[in-house]
Each structure stands twice: as C-alpha cells, then as structure tokens.
Amino acid sequence: MFDTLTQRLTRAVNSLRGRGRITEENVSEILREVRVALLEADVALPVIKGFVDSVKAQALGTEVAASLTPGQAFIGILHKELVALMGGARAGFSLRAEPPLIVLLAGLQGSGKTTTAAKLARWLIERQARKRVLLASTDVRRPAAMLQLERLAGQVGAEYFPADSGTAPADIARAAAQQARRGVFDVLIVDTAGRLHVDEAMMQEVREIDSAAEPVERLFVVDAMAGQDAVNAARAFSGALDLTGIILTKADGDARGGAALSVRAITGQPIVFLGVGEKPEALEPFDPERMASRILGMGDVVALVEQVQREVDTDEAERLARKVATGKGFDLTDLRGQLEQLQRMGGLGALLDKLPATAAQQAVSPDQGDLQVRRQIAIINSMTPRERRQPGIIDGSRRRRIARGSGVQVQDVNRLLKQYLEMQRVMKSMKGGRLRRMMGALKGKMPPD
Amino acid sequence: MFGRKREDTAKEPEARASFFRRLGSRLNRGSAWLGLDLATLLGGRRVDSEILAELEARLLTADVGVEATEHILADLGTRVARQELADAGALSGALRTAVTEILEPCAQPLVIDPERRPFVILVVGVNGSGKTTTIGKIAQRLAQEGASVMLAAGDTFRAAAIEQLGVWAERTGSALIAQQAGADPGAVVFDAVQAARSRGIEVLLADTAGRLHSQSHLMEELKKVKRVIRRVDPTAPHEVLLVLDANQGQNALAQALQFHEAIGVTGLALTKLDGTAKGGIVVAIARKLRLPIRFVGVGEQAEDFGEFDAGAFAAALVEGAGAAGLAS
Ligand SMILES: Nc1nc2c(ncn2[C@@H]2O[C@H](COP(=O)(O)OP(=O)(O)OP(=O)(O)O)[C@@H](O)[C@H]2O)c(=O)[nH]1
Ligand SMILES: Nc1nc2c(ncn2[C@@H]2O[C@H](COP(=O)(O)OP(=O)(O)O)[C@@H](O)[C@H]2O)c(=O)[nH]1
Ligand SMILES: [Mg+2]
Ligand SMILES: [Mg+2]
Q1: How far is CA A403 from each of CA A125, A410, A415, rounded to the nearest angstrom?
Q2: If pLDDT is split at 50, 70 and 90, which confidence band does B32 have?
Q3: Is the pLDDT of residue B127 over 80?
Q4: Does residue B114 have a cis peptide bond before it, meaning omega lies within 30 degrees of 0?
Q5: Are residues B147 and B182 both part of a single domain?
Q6: Is there a contact between B245 and A350 if contact means CB atoms under 8 Å apart?
C-alpha cells in the first residue's frame, strides 16, 4: 500500500531521464505502473484500457527531463484525465423539477440504499428547505427493511409512507406517488430492495416500480469498496432504469473507490453524492478532484482538513494555539490530548491515507504508528501531574518507574521525552508563524493567509 | 454439514451431493464468463503470451488482485516456456489447479465442538456484507441438525437491526437475546453467553454492527465485546467469523488483515456469490493469511448457503460456472 503510485511513477519516469521525452517506446513501462495502480484501486479492467489509451496520447512528447519531479508531473496528467472523466455537467440534483420531486434508489444488496434515502431526506429538509419529504419502502423482502426506513424517517424528520409487506412493490410505489402528488409533499424518495443485476425477476420488479412511481431522479447506489464486477451491475441497472445519477457510499473507509470511475464511465451519469458514514448527516456532494486524488493514492487533503475541523475541540485548539504562539506552556498533558485526538480521528492510518503519498511515505507505517500512539498515551498516563507539567524533573529513577507503570522500555520513555523537546523547539521556532495561521484557518476564524 | 465432532458423517455424501448440485446451478449464475468458457476461448489456439494475457485479465476481473495474479501467472508462464503446457486444455487445467492449490488448505469446514457449550460464534464484518443473513443461514442448518441455537442481537446501532435478527430467530426457531437499540453491544453479548450457558444452549451466534476496519474506535468496541465474552468463558469465542461480500474488490484484503489483527479471525464466509462477482480476493487473502474459509452465500434465503469447496470455487473463478462441471 505504501509503495504508492507517486513512488512507482517517479521510479519509472526517472529511468527515462536523460532520454528527454516520453515516446512510444519508453512509455509502456510508465503505463504499466498506471494500470497496476488503477487495478489496485479497483477500477474495472475495460475502463482502465480506455483510460490508459487517452493518457498515453496526452503523455507522448512530454518533456520529462524538463520537470524536476517528472513522476509528479505525470501524475498531474493522470489527475487531470480522471477529473475530466468523473466530472460532469452537474454536481447537484434536479431540484428545479415541479414538486413533488420523486427519487428512486436502486442497487445491489447492502450497498446503502436505505441509509442513503434517509440522508437525502435530511439533506433536502435541512439544506434545501424542502420541508415535506415522504419516504416509502418497497423492500418487502429483507426482514425488517421497512421498519428500518420508518425508524430513519423519524430520525430525520421526514414522513414515512406506511405500507404492508404483503403488497406488491410497484403498488406501494404507485400509492406513495399518488399521495405525494395529492398531498403537500415536496419530495418523495422511494427505497427498493437490494437486488442482483442477474436476477431477471427482480430487475423486472424494479422496472415496474419505476413506471409506477415515475421518478425524476433514478439513482444507482454503489459501495466504494466494490470491485471489478461493479461495471456489470452498473450496466444492467443502467439498462433497466435509465439512470440519472450515482451515489457512492461507505467512502469514509480506506477503499480507493475505483468503482466510482468504472460506474461513471459505464453509465455516463454523474456521481452526485458521497456517503461518508452511517449517520444521516454523513452525506457530501461529490468532488471529482478529491475522488481523482483518492483513486491515485494521492490522499485527500481537503477531507483531512475537514475531518480535523469536525473532530478537533475548538476551545482546546484555541488554548493550544495560544501556547504555541507564545512557545510556552505546551506540556505533556497537551501532547496527550493531541495523541488522543489522533486516535479519535481513526488513528494514524486513516490520516496517512488522506495525506499525499510523498508526505505519507516519510511517516511511520500506520500500524506501528498507532501502536506507538497508544504506547505514548500509556506513558504519559503513568506520570504524575507534576511530571506532565514539568517534564524537566523526570530523572532516571522516575523514567524507570514510568516505564514499569506503562509496560514499556525505558528507551520508549526517553524517546517520548526527546520528541516532546523537539516539538517544543519547533513550536518556538514557528512562533506566531505558519502553525498558528494553520490552526486559525482550521477554526475558520482567521484567514488562511 | 457442520463437522460436529464425534458425530457420524455417514449420511453426509448424499446430502452433500444434492447440496453441491444446487450450488452449481447458482454459483455465478450470470452464465459463464462473458458467455464463453475457457475451453471455447482457447479452442484450437496455440499456447502463447497472448493467451496468458487473457488469463491474466480473467484473474484480474475476478478481483484476484495484481500481486496474487502475478504470482499465479509467473508459475504458469515458466511452464509454458518449458512447453509443459502444450495445448489450451492443459493450460486451463493448470490454472485451475494453481488456484485450487492456494485455496485447498483454507477449505476447512467449521467444526462445532460439543464440549464447548455454548459454542460461541462471533460474526463480524464491514457494513452490509451479509452478517445477519449468514447468521440466519447457519442457525437454520444447525436447527435442521437438531442443535439448540441462540442469537445475540449485538448490532444495537443500525436502525431495525435487532428486529431483522428477530425475524431470523423466529424463522429458525432460535432463542433471541436482545436489549434496546443503542445498548452496549458488550453487555448484550455478555447477557447472551450467560443465558445460553444457563439454558444449556449448544450454539450461540452473536451478531455485531457492521464497521469499517479503518474506524479504530469501532474496532476497539469489537475487542471489548470479545473480552466480555471471555469473562464468562475464557475459551470463547470459539469462532470469529469474518463475513466478506464477493462484490468487494481489493479492500477486502485490508478488511481481513485488520479484523484479524484486531480480534483474531478464525474463519471467513463469502457472500453474494449468486451474482457475477467472483470473490477472487479470497485467493489473495488465502495466500496472505491462510484463514479457513467456511461458508459461501448464494442468495438471500436460508437455504442459499453452503460449505466452501476449493475446487468448485476455482472452477467457477477460472472457467465460469458452465464449464465447472458443477451442475452435472
Ligand atoms: N460506513 C458507512 N456505512 C454505511 C454508509 N451507508 C450505509 N452504511 C451502512 O451499510 C449497511 C447497509 O446499509 P443499508 O442502507 O441497510 O443498505 P441497503 O442497500 O438498503 O441494504 P439492503 O436493503 O439490505 O439491500 C448498514 O450497516 C449501514 O449503516 C456509509 O456511507 N458509510
Ligand atoms: N444475493 C445475495 N444477497 C445476500 C447474501 N447474503 C446477504 N444478502 C443480502 O445483503 C444485504 C445485507 O445483508 P445483511 O445480512 O443485512 O448484512 P449485514 O449488514 O452485514 O448484517 C441484505 O439485503 C441481504 O438480504 C447472498 O449470499 N446473496
Ligand atoms: Mg435497504
Ligand atoms: Mg446486520
């Protein structure tokens, strides 16, 4: 995982140095690396073929020697191509349709349709002031599927269309649409049972639901962890439903999400939203730039910043910023706070995945790192409050006691203290500088520059 | 189907045969690969690098992954170069054998030790992979074999997850231990192990909420569930079953690695093999972790379920179901 695309490409391109340009002859090595990277990101093989061809056309003739970091330069080309492929005319949702706006969600089993129905409802209610949203479930198959949607409707302040699991799915959809049109609803979202694209009876069923509800939006819900077969599913759903968009779920994990590219390419429809968690508020508009970075393993710096913003306690951050600004008073309790925050944000691994490859490769491996973080917290926990405030007093015998108390070696305690001193030194040297501006920007209180 | 120690397996062959017929007709029912089985594709062609490239594409589109694919093909390539694999049939057979050889050591059925009562199975995995359904399927098999079964509603997070499991308990005649939504999963499972013990239940299946392996706080929660089980019975859980969705790609490898590291996985179940997805990532997982693969899921109903069979899986993966000889 850490032999990142940037590293691979840098190696491949470096081998061309001195030969000047990327040519038909020497490009193949590079393109192989691209292919491997895309395969590892789960982009479907047939989609990769087309993509690689277009990148090749772009790359031919490029001056590699001219660029200081040719690997990066090449990634730039890739990135641009991916963005072009995934970007669409539209980043939103056809909100201008005459009310009621009817939305149909479909996809494979467990892809996240029901959760997404609730997320969309919440988004429409809170962000778009579409106050009256009706949620209807046509999933008469999976145990407790209707109850799941009913509960979620309650959570997000939408209305639930009660239906009996003995009723035909299309009839439920028709009745719900009638109620939405008759009533005072701005939006109707129709959830469907998960189905496999090869299940003919079930694909027929979803077509019937579609003609009964006559939705304006027909969205295909696909899991960011999906593999190569996502293209086959997307093709079949697209054939059955005349899709208008895609929602990529479970993007809060560490999957590269190459399925986004595959599904986009096969259906020709834009990815509208990203599901980034299990809770109803975990929905984000799709951003092709960020998705391209993620697929290429370049990390997602924007997401990182947003996550930090979400997780970091603002008061705490302010207190810290002051300490950092003066270069005084940053003690081991503060360091522990930082380490705990790191854990809350999903550990080092989750954060490293969001960093650009070059930055990540300089850091420790995430597993080791997380272990270290846990260890360091344990060490600090074994200190007395006074030791945390005045690390200077921690002499040899104290170090041994702390090591015993936290189940580590004395060297580990030494290393932690050394790191702390180093941090303090860096902070003093940055006094009032970059770090402070950065933290200010995170809090949204100070302009970034 | 459960190897239950001490019990006779004499009645097995009959049941097994009929089961695999069923499996054969459902495994990857989206016809054979691209409508062609390997023999048709290769028919009459000389074995050359182009054919190797086609085989490579097959493995890759089955989600086997770059590394495992390269490993398998390097070996085949050498044999082609040595002209050991003269014709298409030999090549296809060799590929199937290579995949089978990787999987075979992992094809270990779950053995329920009657000495452990209750035998505790903790079921884990990412969101939507099929944990609850798999529990229902296992419960059904056990009930058919006359075992007493209890289900623990350890997913207290997802809306109506408790009720979903409740339906399976009803369908399979299993006991159900549940608390209210939002309850501490550790407490639910703790209660269940105690209740199962006092009622003399043979098998306890504990459901858990889906979680992504990268969410460290949720992985910590899982560790806690395991610790809590241990407090009642230091030998439990007797099986930690990781449920993987065949539709997943390379991320499933990270899932296996990290769930294993966090709580020690002892078996895998591969679901949704009734579609066109091949679940090839288990080949990569088998190479890296050698975890036993217990079950496959081939549909949403209780009976759409079977033991993992390395040969049948390799055949479906390499050649498509039509050519796998499963349906005969
Ligand atoms: N981490 C994460 N989990 C999600 C996301 N979206 C849905 N889930 C979870 O994925 C699982 C399946 O979600 P559902 O909404 O029930 O999926 P579905 O497509 O309706 O499933 P079926 O109706 O059973 O086919 C649940 O555990 C959800 O909580 C997401 O964006 N991130
Ligand atoms: N086609 C098919 N669907 C399955 C299989 N196993 C589970 N499912 C479906 O996948 C979805 C998620 O399953 P569930 O058991 O709720 O997953 P959990 O979130 O991991 O507990 C449900 O719609 C199930 O009916 C299978 O083997 N094949
Ligand atoms: Mg659903
Ligand atoms: Mg479940």
Answers
A1: 54, 5, 12
A2: very low
A3: yes
A4: no
A5: yes
A6: no
Sheet holding B175-177, edge to edge: B175-177, B149-152, B203-206, B119-124, B239-245, B267-271, B293-297, B305-307
Cβ of A229 and B277 within 8 Å? Answer: yes
Q: Is residue B4 part of a domain?
A: no
The complex scores an ipTM of: 0.88
Predicted pLDDT at B179: 97
Does residue A374 surpass a pLDDT of 50? Answer: yes
pLDDT band at B160 (very low <50, low <70, confident <90, very high): very high
Residues A31 and A49: their CA atoms lie apart, in Å, by: 10
Poorest-confidence range of A179-183, A251-255, A339-343? A339-343
pLDDT at position B15, please?
Answer: 43
A246 Cα–ligand 3 center, Å: 16
> Above 70 in pLDDT, residue A88?
no
Pocket of ligand 1 (CB under 6 A): A 107, 109-115, 139, 142, 145, 193-194, 249-250, 252, 275-278, 282; B 127-128, 158, 210, 212
- Residue B62 in tokens: 């089955």
Do B91 and B240 fall within a single domain? Answer: no
CATH code of domain A101-296 = 3.40.50.300
SS3 A65: coil
Gap between the Cα atoms of A318 and A366, Å rounded: 28
Domain with CATH 3.40.50.300 in chain A: 101-296
Range of the domain at B120: 111-308
Please state the separation of Cα B114 from the chain's center in Å.
23
Phi, psi of B242 (to 5 degrees): -95, 125
Domain with CATH 1.10.260.30 in chain A: 305-443
Q: Whose CA is nearest to atom 27 of ligand 1?
A: B127
- Spacing, Cα A114 to ligand 1 middle (Å): 7
